[in-house]
Amino acid sequence: MRITICGSIAFYDEMQKIKQDLEVMGRKVQLPPEKVIDERGEEISVKKYYDIRKMANDKENWVWDRKSEAIMNHFKKIEWADAILVLNYEKNGVPGYIGGNTLMEIGLAFFLKKKIYFLNEIPELSYKEELLGVKSIVIGGDLNKII
């Protein structure tokens, strides 16, 4: 099975660990990129880019160009996959956090008729109905439930 991991870049370390665990189980796995190119053409870690992006204003074009590229590249990974696994850990005091970008990825996966797995319970969010409506499967941290 081919799986694309989705979730906040704040969870990148967890993504790498889950990827390793799934690969040991014989799955093929894709993640968001580990590095991006900054405004000087130099590679920076995706976590450093995430920190820069949180502080960026609307006029910092290179930041939003990279964001656009990242969205398109990850959409292609979702298209490649048989399923997505959403890593929805606690973030900003929200248990099971699912942000805007991840919600877009879930919508794409649903449209492409991919299986949608959540690592943890679906949180109480204003768009919980949409998350339930895509017929996702909550695995409660048990990667063996991805079938």
UniProtKB/TrEMBL annotation:
Q: Which organism is it from?
A: Candidatus Wildermuthbacteria bacterium RIFCSPHIGHO2_12_FULL_40_12
Q: What is this protein called?
A: Maf-like protein
Judging by the UniProt lineage, the source's domain of life is Bacteria
